[in-house]
TrEMBL record:
The organism's taxonomic lineage, starting at the top: Bacteria, Bacillati, Bacillota, Bacilli, Bacillales
Biased composition (Basic and acidic residues): 223-237, 331-340
Family matches, as SMART domains: SH3b
InterPro entries recorded: 3D_dom, 3D_YorM, Resuscitation_pf_RpfB, RlpA-like_sf, SH3-like_bac-type
Region annotated Disordered, chain positions: 223-245, 328-364
Key words, A-Z: Signal
Protein name, entry field: Enterotoxin
Length: 463
């Protein structure tokens, strides 16, 4: 198309000359008396002019915008959907060869010759005005208000698509429209003004048919010379086009190498982005797990509060029972002292304390016991972190140790305790949801923790 534009100007000049000569000859012929000769000559000249216009390819083309990428990196996809495979990347400012745009997707032809799709939302189209004066209207029709005027070679940039030969764009802060047939996507080429040659030839009103014939012969000779010049110009243009094609091939190779380098860089950037997304997903999973753990803790706290009330009632009853038992023990002690005075007591073997047998003397209370493990996520840590108790015990390294989390106001931190069904343990940890008669019991694994769950048990504080 650029080649045709380069040779169109001399061809137009040739046609203008032929029409001018034709007009002058026709004036002379119309003054002659030979009607048949006039008609024949007129037809011949009109045929020559028509052949020159259509034979030399002087025609106009519909406006096609210059499309440019407006985002940092634009995905090139195999099909017009965001789920389609990405086959390449385009960078900001890249000029795209758009074949067709529909439903927000532009079909493009890549340098490799392959056709693909890009989102039209991340491109803009550039048009240049071809008319001397072009009306800018408030609507997409010739009856709407004229907002202003554009002059030849003015530039229009828009992100909208052509609809019914009208294009929408922003004009002085307003939505405006212009008629597309008066636009082009090719930037204007600055040329040196041509020197106009005025011909001083005048045809006398009294010229005869012979003079008209001579004028026709002169016009034919000049037309032939112009045609030869046009042929030479076309041949020169073809030679220039061949040279440009070779240069373009070299440029394509260089562009291909550059595109491959950019594609590799884009792939590396994409891999880094995926790694970052995976890290964010892990962080989100941790946050969700922490939120779920907090929700579970709150639910557990509510349940523990309810059970604590019951435990307090049970504790009161137990204290009364303990007081009664203490009185009985005191009476029994007195009885034993009396018995010793009468007869030496026989030594009895002392039963060895086990994990399941309750110690004989201690402060006893009923509590709600919930199982937990040394899993970092379960304890509000990040995956891979070391979980430590409030007293500094490394639970990650010692998941099998006997340890419970307590409310220090109920069971002093560091106390040795006996837990029903669990055995002797250390009160070595605390927790935000552990208030009143509630404890958490450390289990070695999730299976054991699930089996224990949550239950009401007896706890004895040994020291």
């Amino acid at each position: 198309m650029e080649l045709l534009q380069n040779i169109n100007d001399p061809l137009r000049n040739l046609c203008n000359f032929m029409f001018s000569a034709n007009k002058k000859i026709m004036v002379a012929i119309m003054r002659s008396t030979k009607t048949n000769a006039m008609e024949a000559i007129m037809k011949k000249f009109m045929g020559i002019a028509t052949a020159a216009v259509f034979g030399l390819g002087i025609f106009t083309t519909s406006a096609k915008a210059e499309t440019i990428v407006t985002t940092d990196v634009l995905n090139v996809r195999e099909n017009p959907t965001t789920e389609s495979q990405v086959v390449g990347k385009l960078l900001d400012g890249y000029k795209v060869n758009v074949l067709h745009t529909e439903n927000g997707w532009s079909k493009v032809k890549l340098n490799s010759g392959k056709e693909a799709f890009i989102s039209a939302d991340y491109t803009k189209d550039t048009y240049y005005v071809t008319a001397n004066v072009l009306n800018v209207r408030a609507g997409a029709n010739t009856d709407s208000e004229i907002l202003g005027k554009l002059k030849q070679d003015d530039v229009i940039e828009t992100t909208h698509q052509v609809e019914n030969d009208w294009i929408q764009f922003e004009y002085n802060g307003k939505t405006a429209y212009v008629h597309v047939p008066y636009l082009t996507g090719k930037a204007p080429v600055k040329v040196q003004p041509a020197v106009k040659v005025e011909k001083a030839t005048k045809v006398q009103n009294t010229a005869k048919a012979v003079e008209a014939t001579k004028a026709r012969e002169v016009a034919e000779t000049q037309a032939k010379a112009k045609a030869e010049e046009a042929t030479k110009a076309r041949e020169a243009a073809e030679a220039q086009a061949t040279a440009k094609a070779e240069e373009a091939a070299k440029a394509r190779e260089a562009a291909k190498a550059q595109a491959e380098a950019k594609a590799q860089a884009a792939a590396e950037a994409q891999a880094a982005a995926k790694a970052e997304e995976a890290a964010k997903a892990r962080e989100a999973a941790k946050a969700q797990a922490a939120a779920e753990a907090q929700a579970a803790a709150e639910a557990q706290a509510a349940a523990k509060a309810q059970e604590a009330a019951k435990a307090r009632e049970a504790a009161k009853a137990q204290e009364a029972a303990e007081a009664q038992a203490a009185a009985k023990a005191q009476e029994a002690a007195k009885a034993r002292e009396a018995a010793k005075a009468q007869k030496p007591a026989t030594q009895q073997p002392v039963a060895k304390e086990t994990e399941t047998s309750a110690p004989s003397s201690s402060r006893e209370l009923r509590v709600v016991a919930t199982a937990y493990t040394a899993d970092p996520l379960e304890n509000g840590y990040k995956a891979g972190d070391q979980v430590k108790s409030a007293m500094g015990h490394n639970l990650t390294a010692n998941p099998n140790m006997k340890l419970i989390a307590v409310d220090p106001s109920v069971i002093p931190l560091g106390s040795k305790v006996w837990v029903e069904g669990y055995g002797v343990a250390i009160a070595g940890d605390t927790g935000g949801a552990i208030k009143g008669n509630k404890i958490d019991v450390l289990m070695p694994d999730k299976g054991t923790s699930s089996n224990w769950g949550r239950k009401t048990v007896t706890v004895k504080v040994l020291n």
